[in-house]
Model the fold of this input.
Amino acid sequence: MKTITFVTQKGGTGKSTLAISLAVAAEEAGHKAYVLDLDPQGSARNWYSRREAAAPPVDTTTAAQLPTALAGLKKHGYDYIVIDTAGQDTPATAAAMQVADLCLIPVRPSIMDIEAAKPTVASLLRLSKPFAFVLNHCPAGRNMRITDAGRALNTMGHLAEPAFVTRADHVDAAALGQGVTERDPTGKAAKEVRLLLEWIGKRTEGARHAA
Ligand SMILES: Nc1ncnc2c1ncn2[C@@H]1O[C@H](COP(=O)(O)OP(=O)(O)OP(=O)(O)O)[C@@H](O)[C@H]1O
Ligand SMILES: [Mg+2]
Done:
């Protein structure tokens, strides 16, 4: 079982958006996925209430109950647990970092957003947790902003692939309780999410063997 936590104290970077589409893509790829929503804002939980399909299930839990919840999900044969967290430092966020096999930090390609990710990086380094940045909200096409941001993030840690472009599919899919791979299976947003799933698969191979 792989536990992937989307985390950053910076709000609005795409934690919930990427978490739900990643979980849907994991299901489509034949994995059993589950989303834990640790953000009181409830973006993932609300998404699930708009969703027609039952999988991937979305549930909420607390910092204290998280280890027990994960043990139960492991027993039920889940392959991917995707945890969505609040855009602030809370006990639930700390717990979600603690239990993760990999933490993903969505970051916009801007200096202010890169700087805002630093407290989260410091927490993850203290915990010795594997983490990677995911560039999100990128302009389409080749762009110096993406190159520069990628370079800066590479000096702070790993950079996941690919970079996510700002695409209407994310907004439309969220409104319909879908993942972007359902909204438009052949679209560019869908391709980006599948590539991220693939990247995570490679990055966490060791964790799977250890599970
Ligand atoms: N790649 C993208 N393309 C288009 N819109 C996006 C993309 N990623 C995120 N968004 C939009 O940006 C907004 C913020 O995204 P989201 O709610 O996922 O961020 P968050 O990090 O979960 O925020 P919070 O810290 O408040 O929980 C939402 O309106 C979402 O639809
Ligand atoms: Mg959110």
Remarks:
- The CA atoms of residues 150 and 159 lie 7 Å apart.
- The pocket of adenosine-5'-triphosphate (ligand 1) is lined by residues 11-17, 39, 41, 43, 87, 136-137, 164, 166-167, 170-171, 174 (CB under 6 Å).
- The chain has eleven helices and seven strands.
